[in-house]
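Field: sequence (string)
Field: structure_tokens (string)

Example rows 1 and 2, in order.
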Amino acid sequence: MCCDLKRRFLLLYATQKGQAKAIAEEIWEQAGAHGLEADMHCMSETDKYNLETEKDPVVIVISTTGTGDPPDTARKFVKKIQDTALPPDHFAHLQYGLLGLGDSEYTFFCNGGKTVDRRLQELGAQRFYDTGLADDCVGLELVVDPWIDGLWLALKEAFLLQKEKEGMSSNVDAVSSSLSAAPDIVHELNLSSEVQNLKLEDGGVRNSDVRTQKLVDINLVASTGDTEPSLVHSVPPVSESALNIPALPPEYIEVEFQDTHGENPHLSSLISEGTTFEVPVTKAVQLTSEDAIKTALLLELDIADTVFDYQPGDAFCVICPNNVNEVEELLQILGLSEKGEYFVCVKVKQGTKKKGATHPQHIPERSTLKFILTWCLELRAIPKKAFLRALVECTSDAGEKRRLQELCSRQGASDYTRFIRESNVCLLDLLHAFPSCKPSLNLLIEHLPKLQARSYSVSSSNLYQPGKLYFVFNIVEFPACPTRAVSRKGVCTGWLAELVAPLLQPNKNTLDTKGGNPSTEKISIFARPNNTFHLPADPSVPFMMVGPGTGISPFIGFLQHRQKLREEHTDWEFGETWLFFGCRHQHRDYLFKQLKCFLENGTLTHLKVCFSRDSSTAEVAPPKYVQDVIRLYAKEVARVLLKERGYFYVCGDKKHMADGVSDAVVDIISMEMEVDKLEAMKILAVLREAKRYLQDVWS
């Protein structure tokens, strides 16, 4: 079909870390094979599209960031459409389909997409295709792939409807034939996060796959002894299937090696989120005993000579490097060990077929190769299927090539989830597992995402300790396993632990700031204010805090701040305060035993603790987890939260704690208010909306 007959649709994406953009690019690439032209733009490029006058269908791919916020690139767009002066028929002319990306580990799942979807509906826009909500917790591809499959038929129907409205029925047949490659699938897809209902293990080849995906059929016979699949080995039916693999992403980056003269850019140039501050680490304390399961460290930063400001409850970000040994190892595998200190110039490849190819914002125009691998690329990122597809072309061994094809194919979807995603496999793991794979440097720059700064809760009050900032973290450990040959520490926590090792004071378990060795080690940080996770504006309002493990971190700041306010304002009325804390062992990881000081001076009204792994000789076993303790104080929780209009804060692990706490609160509301569970859930939702039930959680 001639290019001038291709039907156009507008394709908008809003991304925070690049996933929405990558999915939009996949849609753009497939569109041509379906006789369509995708006019693709970032949502922030408002000078390149106009929804007020848009006549063609609109496809939107949008992620969610923070606590349910739209990504930065969508904020102006969202603000514009949320103008209350807009009439209810403002977008009555608009047909759209929306794919939202999110993570069900967090409370406001896919809220960025839901916000745009809801507002477009309120302004009269019509969906030509069901909204898809993809869950990064279980794998975006489980919803993204079938959603894209169904998009082409939905667009076909939208164009036919458009033709009928325009009275141009004579051209309907031409449009139909141009889209004949679209898969004949049911339009009504269940695209909720209930991904278990999606049947993706389709052994056949869809018609639509022929033009966008390469048919692979290399029947390598597995040895009879290997009956279980692994990262490097498959079993029937995958090992015997013809595979539907993604189209090969076009290369768009070229790297030119230069000399060894010059200076690398300052770390602040890598950050667009705000002002960076280079601050010294002045103290480090190990809060846990040597035999604790996890090692928790408390660090003190000196911010006295900066304008860095924060409130208790805020978070901040640490700019961290990749592990130096992993960088050296990668250079060796790439055959570039001698080139690490050479400056490289990264450019967009001339004549690339990649739509809208631009220089990656997180890669400096000129820096050393080692700087890029150390500070710019997330070497630990879980490889996406498009990356695996590109790695296939760099692999010489036939068996290894076939296995990589399987892992990025539709037929190997469950293997990808099990051996790549759930095993937290990274690029180095793959290169060890598939030694004949020798990717080029430009391929890594194209496919590895930006190395993200790591976020931590502030564990202090600037009012209580001016010029100081404290934070607490567990050193993350990734043990060796079948898919990971060596054990590793977390990118940032491992680096910080190594950095402060000379400062470390073992197991003092205190916030006493006296002593400590002077340090010349500095780290770069920038603010990440939290607009809601703060103390009540009215000090007379009671509040409850739930923070097991390192989840207690922001509440230390809360209590320090409250203590200082009580000292400075003796005439004020202060509401009661509750803290529910839990850990494994009382004598190994009770992080802040001086909590009793807050209790003794009246800053903290009630302290309830539990220890999940300590044995007990009591006739009635004590509660093990904070959610169990909360249930023991049901009447007090109901009184503070419902009768006295208090606040309820939860900080810590989402899946294993925060969900259990919210379930306990729902049960308490149901019991104390004598309503059914559904009504209790609605009441909790109202409390969340009113910002009186607040969470700062992580997965």
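Row 2 begins here:
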Amino acid sequence: VEVKIEVVIPEKERSKEEMSPNGKASPLIYKVNGTARRYHLEEHPIASNPYHNPKDVVEASVCHVKDLENGQMREVDLGCGKALLIKESGEFHAVGHKCPHYGAPLVKGVLSKGRVRCPWHGACFNISTGDIEDFPGLDSLPRFQVKIEKEKVYIRASKQALQTQRRTKMMAKCISLSSYNLSSTNVLIVGAGAAGLVCAETLRQEGFSDRIVMCTMDRHLPYDRPKLSKSMDSHPEQIALRPKEFFRTYGIEVLTEMQVAAVDIKNKIAVFKDGFKMEYNKLLIATGNMPKALSCKGKEVENVFNIRTPEDANRVVKLATSKNVVIVGASFLGMEVAAYLAERAHSVSLVELEEVPFKKFFGERVGRAVMKMFESNRVKFYMQTEVSELREQEGKLKEVVLKSGKVLRADVCVVGVGAVPATGFLKQSGINIDSKGFVVVNKMMQTNIPGVFAAGDAVTFPLALRNNKKVNVPHWQMAHMHGRVAALNMLAHGMEISTVPYLWTAMFGKSIRYAGHGEGFDDVVIQGDLDELKFVAFYTKSDEVVAVASMNYDPIVSKVAEVLAAGRTIRKRDVEHTDHVCFRTLGNTSQRCWVFFFLFFRTGDMSWLTGKGS
């Protein structure tokens, strides 16, 4: 038997659902202000040859068909690039080998029921189509055709696809804007973060060709916000999620430095701070959070920052180089900023009200291990205290005074004491907001007002993983999925959100991965070695594992995420006992943890956990 893999150029792809019997894109109908309107994807003739240029094609022998068993993946090298060859349920599939998000090797990820999950940040891709099914990231994988002939495996691929390792889904283009009233739009998206951008892109991917307007208080087009604290010297154009040309090509209008001050839900009008008014048919609220400021004396002193924009991050790096830095708050942002500045600043001090960093999120034992790592990298902690005063000299920060009486030298202060939802403009709107300021939505990201949706950090929504408990999950990955679900339901698809939360933090070249929702956990079961920063932590509530975190044990978190996504329950007893057959033959903890991970990854079921498997 012989296997051949052939790239399908994305621009020419057409799924069966998008095609009418005559081979042209089927127009869809969407009601605009009560009037039925047709829109469709750009029509292209079906190409008999998927390659524009035969010289761009490479073909190479890879392996024997029997070299891969069901459930196995292999990276194969074609000389000018690699592909990921997969065998599942007796069928071969081939897609790009790198996650389009940050380039993780997918061969080290998790294969489960027709999709592969990234080992780093949890994005999921359909192995048959290459389409992205869970986030983070915007692009899908290139899909390669597979042919089986004789006993050798060949891959035939476009050199360009092998080099880019990403594919942007085909999208509709907006009809002529000249026919629009500038003060009226079909879809208005308030906020230009991950939720807003994914909503706009999903609408276009589904063939929606009416007007879409995004507005943001920021001066930039949508960018990779997590990098503000992880890669602080990045310039806006380096972390842009899409180039300017993308927005022009697909008719997604972005109004920068524009703040919505109020929403009139009765007349479907958004009122901007400068008095401009815009009518809408569908509204998405994706305003995210606003950082909390300090309330102490001297809070207006110069060189005190909340990291909100690329300019903030760049300014902090410049001012902190070879200077004294004080960071207030051992939040994810505060800890990541401390890690980034540790090698650049003369000194880094971190002030925190709690006894241990991340105690409420990762638990005390993991928090102490992380704290020890920071201390070994010259970060000084001042715990269980707060800032009482910021002192200045000639208008600039000089000292940070703590309530404990300690006085810290400081040229720069970064505040990371949490955030509040940016929903103040909705208080009189009639849109349901809870006591903490979060917009309340259902599983379809709908608010209590017809045609009004909300997504991202500013919402509470029913989390399927926790029996539909209303939660707020301010994760980058979750914001992507919120935006997609909102867009599909604007088009009446009836899709409900069911994704498993997934996040990561990066410090000193190491990452902690986390999946699930551990709020209210009552115990932590740890396998591995915290001192070596090589561990897996299971967060339990009563008898059930509700979340998992790991460091240096990829892809265990992605594997657990797949188990949870399948609706299966992991019991506390399954992860806390080390006397099962899979642990008995090895001595030290790190070895046991490796076997734990290995069996989890290889079996795809829970039998080995309970001691009933082999």
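free_text_note (row 2): The chain is about 20% helix and 30% strand.
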